[in-house]
Amino acid sequence: MVETIFDLPVEKQIFYAVLGFSWTVYLWEAYLSYRQRRIYRTTTHVPQELGKIMDSETFEKSRLYQLDKSNFSFWSGLYSETEGTLILLLGGIPFLWAVAGSVTTRFGFGPEYEITQSLVFLTLATLFSAITGLPWSLYNTFVIEEKHGFNQQTLGFFLKDAVKKFAVTQCILLPVTSLLLYIIKIGGDYFFIYAWLFTLVVSLVLVTIYADYIAPLFDKFTPLPDGELKTDIEAMAKSISFPLTKIYVVEGSKRSSHSNAYFYGFFKNKRIVLFDTLLEDYSPLNKAGESQPEQPESDETSSESKAKPKNKKQGCNNPEILAVLGHELGHWKLGHTVKNIVISQMNSFLCFSLFAVLIGRKELFVAFGFDDSQPTLIGLMIIFQFIFSPYNEVLSFCLTVLSRRFEFQADAFARAMGKASELYSALIKLNKDNLGFPVADWLFSMWHYSHPPLLERLRALGNTKQD
Asked: Domain named CAAX prenyl protease 1 N-terminal: which ranges (predicted)?
């Protein structure tokens, strides 16, 4: 008689269900990526409707860049899924927990010091993840991004940055985790409420201090100099009652030539951050291109050069920057930021409530190799990462759909401010600068794109024409 999964003990059913769902998600993602790679491979000429938006040279560059990224994503995703499967099958989690116990015992801490053991486990787990992920990160930065002209980092800078990121992460992660575990231990029947409130406070504090205290550890932030752009930004913010206090330019060009902009802060203390690569007048890549006369390109010069703009302006002019900020401020004015925070916290409260129901189920721990103990940190990992994975996938898709809706609304807000033409040209420039490929498989974009495809956004902005 053939034994089915339903004939197995409940803990085995849980284990194989988690493993099966993980591979189902991976195969679904791989199928979507295959569909998109087929688009990259077969769409070799600029479609007619893109003729006035994108020249054939940029189109081919973006096609090859996205194809390389997609191929890399396939292999890194396969490795990640295989690694995760082997960790589960070979009992990697209980093994690492036992190693953490051995370390704490050596320093005189017995099994009763569960939080201490949990912190050692967390440090070892994040260290393992950082080491196994390093080759992939190196390849992505120094092969793919370098090949397509985006990487601005040296190997020394990259490694120093990786060490710094790991150290800063530990400085935040370990104290927060220890306090969370302590709250769960002493919280009684309503611990999930206190745990949720604690994570709410931590997330708000991190959002508040990130750009002032954490981000400057990695990038240089300087106030936007006085001038026409600063005056116009302040006037636009005032016109919609945005409580702007400071405008910064971040030196993103030392890492990558990709561009970005964002705002942060709560209540009456809002700040705007612009990447120098977004600003046509500030981008060092433009200055590098202007400082050298154009010369015939030889194999030798091309192999030594890095981020080499030739007669190509990167970034946006001032009216276009104002249009991009009009879009970003639209997110604030339309309440998108607050709505996202509310959704996030409702989800967090729901998850902690369900965690409170499930944490006492011994079979969940036995399923993953913990026969004799039920550590709280392991319970958090099993329930939030494994048991909630189907719910997390559905939620992620819903948030992606909502994000696209918010993006259209923010574009419409900028258009209502009279900046449709400038936003139209800014979106085209940013797509070119970042080598975005404007043709997408409908199923891939529906599942993955948090921002609508370029053509959809341009159509929504109306039939505004470039100069």
From this structure: 36-220
First and final C-alpha spacing in the chain: 75
Q: Residue 49 catalytic?
A: no
Token pair, residue 163, equals 């060490």
Cβ atoms of 382 and 365 within 8 Å: the answer is: yes
At residue 246, what are phi and psi to the nearest 5 degrees?
-145, 150
- Cα separation, 286 vs 289, whole angstroms: 5
Contact between 229 and 261 (Cβ < 8 Å): no
Nearest to 12 by CA among 367, 370, 360: 367
Residues making up the annotated binding site are 327, 331, 407
Under a CB-based contact definition with an 8 Å cutoff, are residues 436 and 445 in contact? Answer: no
User: pLDDT 10s digit of each residue in the chain, 467 long?
Assistant: 456 666 788 999 999 999 999 999 999 999 999 999 999 999 999 888 788 888 899 999 999 999 999 999 999 999 999 999 999 999 999 999 999 999 999 998 888 899 999 999 999 999 999 999 999 999 999 999 999 989 989 999 999 999 999 999 999 999 999 999 999 999 999 999 999 999 999 998 998 888 788 888 888 889 999 999 999 999 999 999 999 999 999 988 888 888 888 888 877 788 899 998 888 776 666 665 454 444 444 443 333 334 444 445 678 899 999 999 999 999 999 999 999 999 999 999 999 999 999 999 999 999 999 998 999 999 999 999 999 999 999 999 999 999 999 999 999 999 999 999 999 999 999 999 899 999 999 999 999 999 999 888 998 887 544 43
Annotated active-site residue 328? The verdict is: yes
175, two tokens:
């104290």
On the CB side of 298, how many CA atoms lie within 13 Å of its CA?
2
- Within 8 A by CB and 6+ apart from 68, the residues are 144, 147, 148
Catalytic residue among 11, 145, 411, 456: 411
Query: What pTM value is reported for the model?
Result: 0.85
Query: What single letter denotes the amino acid at residue 330?
Result: G
Beta strands 270-275 and 244-250, pairing class: parallel
Catalytic-labelled residue, pool 81, 146, 251, 328:
328
